[in-house]
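Handout, section 4.2: multi-component inputs.
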Amino acid sequence: MGQRFPLFPEQASTVAPMTDNLYFFLIGITVLFSTGIFLAILIFAIKYRRRSEDQVPVQYEGPASLEIIWTLVPLGIVMLMFAWGTHVFFAATTPPRDAIEIYGVGKQWMWKLQHMEGHREINELHVPVGTPVRVTLTSEDVIHSFFVPDFRIKTDVLPGRYTTAWFEATKPGRYRLFCAEYCGTDHSRMIGWIHVMEPQEYQAWLSGGGAEGSMAASGQKLFEDLGCASCHTTDGRGRGPNLVGLFGSPVALAGGGTVKADAAYIRESILAPNAKIVAGYQPIMPTFQGLVTEEGITQLIEHIRSLGQQPGAAPAGQPVQPEAAGTKAGER
Amino acid sequence: MSASHAERLELREQFDTPAQQKEASTLGMWIFLVTEVMFFGGLFTAYIIYRSFYTDAFARASNTLDVAIGSLNTVVLIVSSLTMALAVHASQIGARRLIVVFLLLTMLFGGVFLGVKAYEWHHKWEQNLVPGSRFHLPGEPQPAQAQLFFSLYFAMTGLHAIHMVVGLGLLAVLVARAQMGRFGPHYYAPVDMVGLYWHFVDIIWIFLFPLLYLVNRHG
Amino acid sequence: MITTAVEERQHYLNAGYGLKSWLLTKDHKRIGLLYLITITLFFVLGGVFATLIRLELLTPPGDLVSSETYNKLFTLHGIVMIFFFLIPSIPATLGNFFLPMMIGARDLAFPKLNLLSWYLLVIGGLFTIFVMVAGGVDTGWTFYTPFSSSYSNTYVVATGVGIFITGFSSILTGLNFIVTIHTMRAPGMRWLRMPLFVWSHYATSLIMVLGTPVLAISVLLVAAERVFHIGIFDPAFGGDPVLFQHLFWFYSHPAVYIMVLPAFGVLSELVSTFSRSRVFGYAFVAFASLAIAILGFLVWGHHMFVAGQSAYAGMVFSFLSFLVAIPSAIKVFNWTATMYRGSVSYATPMLYAFGFIGLFTIGGLTGLFLASMGLDIHVHDTYFVVAHFHYIMVGGAVMAYLGGLHYWWPKMTGRMYPEGWSKLSALLVFVGFNVTFFPQFVLGYVGMPRRYHVYPDEFQVLNVLSTAGASILAVGYVLPLIYFIWSLRYGAVAGSNPWRATGLEWKTPSPPPVHNFEETPVVRHEAYDYAALFKEEEAHVR
Ligand code: HEA
Ligand code: HEA
Ligand code: CUA
Ligand SMILES: [Cu+2]
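Output:
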């Protein structure tokens, strides 16, 4: 920041240098081929300029091997680009398993972000340096996009789905957050800051006021307020299934088949309970569409996760596997 | 009116020979039909995707359609295709009366199809199965998904019906021209073209029928 | 050489006078001119929107117009420039005028349909103009759902209807071209003797015919969704917003090749004529067009790498996007090689051709940045993308269009344009263009998102540069507008073949007679056979 006329964004995440290296490689290829072509044109234009109006040059029939060369050489180069680009993509979209979890909701025209510990922020996000952070995102209305140029990350934020972004900041500082997908009137004002802090500072920030109880605790409160607890008892005798140990485990469905109980599945169970019926139960659960906000849903998910997990899934308070909330949700 | 006179009458100035003109119009018609395939293709894609997302709701919604009526309409349409083919044949051999008869028969069957379709739509309207605020499918656990089925149902059958109406209009023009004795072995391209179009519309229905009516009737 | 004066000879321009003789014409040449006038108006309109965009972006805060207005400006700019200017530009004007002449035909196969497609463009355009007057539309040219279907409260449906109608204009043009090329070639005009302009129009037409219907059904569904809430794209009703993106890009990616393939065709003609040598690797260039048309249908997902599509689908799209770059590379190399040992002239059209090759190369190579999934995460929806497509569409396609216009102007009107002014305009366009759009690559990489009405201060310097460049560019574009009109009266009289080019269109007087040729030509040579042409000319003189 502070620089008046930057040519490059800051390299403030672990992914940033990878992206930049690819960028430099591509710039190299571009410079190479464009100067080559410009020079060839320049030279031919001068050397073979028309000297008289009636000049008819002898037709030059070049070797056919030329065609093969200039098909195969670019082909080789682009295959390299493909491999490299794909490699960077997977690095930039696969969060490490020990990432801390943030939930985010985009709505016209603001970002609402929640920490596990319960802190809620609007258009700002505080994170520790040197720690992987995973942001699980959804939208209340139209499509938005979570973009932090200094981290070289971007993910579209879709209504009705969870997508994820992750980063590990390498330098403390303040970095811009943009909404990159056009979302209506104030799209250009849907911006904010990511504050990257030293770990101890971050701890201090966390323990400073503002927390309204952890997400799981808020979720538990909602669970009771919305009356979920009346059916979902922990003794397994309620009208609904026992949710303890549900998160991350396979669920047998009425009519055959199983699904994995990930964030997307729980969200669906709350908003469209009859979409998938648990084997052995009646489709009596009412929909909570309109009664609970997207943020509330993420809190409920955290609550259910805190009820215990199957071995093999990530420990409580820690993220599920990347595909659990991201791709699976994407694929419905 | 001698054959050669009619030829000259119908040969447009940009063409050198009637054969060239015929080739051009046939190719043009085929390309047009390809664009139609792509047009419906978008809808079919949407249908197939949602069908795989919401298999059960689509199956339940599909069960409210009346297979008997759908089958009846399929038969009617196939017969109309047959009479259309016969009309083309009649024009090739120059049987003027027969052209008119077969064209009228084709129109009749086309009309029956549309009538039956209108009856079905009306029925859906009365059952509150038209998407919108009144939409209601009793006992359906996933009303939004079922409504999506009906949205696609009306979009697809509606678009198909619009094509039928256009076809009937074209047939009417042909009947008028056939009455004037315009068609014969030397000049029957228009009948041929409309025939292609009519068969195409028929084929679209042949795809729509199983997709919409029969998704859940196997076994 | 034959320099017949434009005396009382009958030609397509003086064959009839009065509005009716134009509005009801079936002559492809007159229809070409109708298109020329129409799209020029739309270009000016789109340019006015661009001007306002650039003025607003001169300063970081939103001080010139409100956010609502800004959003409408870039939406209308994109829609007008794409659907009403660039897609019809080369095919409907130069293609309409010259494609039949190049293959030795008297007209297109379906002249009435040709006229109808012009009317469809006009009607679609009127809808769009109605939208502008009534209050605009603010969805972006991409109409992403659910914003367009459920949230925007502007004139989305009317805009959609306009685009729907215009789409049919494009379908009919494509259909007409394909049939014409198949059935109306003059005797001896074999497929591999056709000028490359015709080949590239054949490929373009294939895309028009196969892709446009999908766009038509997509906008129809968005309109239906808005009016009846049928819920196909809105998650609130169980729909999937990303499905729309798939349908939209299934058309709109191939559409970018609708915009650039005709430009390739023009380039082949220019480079050959002004180097006096046969296009190097003729068959490769011809088939590259078809390869692009076909592969172009398989890469649409590269617009959606971060849109929530699965990473593996993304890989396939990325891979295919890289493949589709190869035929473009082949063309660029072949054009360059065509100049080798040629006789290179620096006439204005050739200057435009040089500009095209340079700018298209940069635009195309930056397309590879976007096709690399890892990099696209960062540059997607930033000004990098804006720079990429302006390089190809403005630096490439518009340059080729202007080059083609200069090249064929003598044939169309019988008059030459003023040489000095035209060179000046070519220079201004080239310089102005680079100053406008090169900074946008940098801007995008630094992180400025597109469609931003207000932006942080640190982006200002580059934006000021860009706006300054745009004003040079505007002068470069206004000049031809003036001198082309001027030349209609005062330009030097052009002979039938001022460039000594080989195409059949040059074998007929300028302006051409109503039926193009006094007698149907018979083709005895390959395309671009300059030796044969000069021998013929000599025989003629003797
Ligand atoms: C005429 C228009 C046109 C053309 C021809 C192209 C051509 C290409 N485009 Fe572009 N593109 C657009 C118009 C066009 N594009 C538009 C309008 C958008 C934005 C839409 C929106 O969101 O509003 C876009 C967006 C866009 C994206 C999405 C970006 C994003 O939103 O994140 C991508 C991603 O892959 C892409 C890739 C490509 C590629 C690989 C080519 C290739 O075909 C390019 C091939 C050409 C070359 C490669 C140059 C010539 C070759 C050489 C000189 C030899 C050397 C070659 C090698 C070493 C290989 N384009
Ligand atoms: C063919 C396509 C085409 C063409 C030719 C242009 C031409 C130009 N475009 Fe644009 N542009 C698009 C297609 C095109 N554009 C698209 C598809 C988008 C995306 C829209 C979206 O996001 O939805 C876009 C978006 C876009 C943006 C990004 C807006 C944003 O994201 O916020 C910008 C910003 O600089 C811009 C600038 C320009 C400029 C300066 C020109 C210049 O080249 C124009 C210069 C021309 C003139 C200035 C007119 C010439 C003047 C006359 C002939 C005389 C009459 C004039 C007066 C008296 C004023 N364009
Ligand atoms: Cu939210 Cu743009
Ligand atoms: Cu594309």
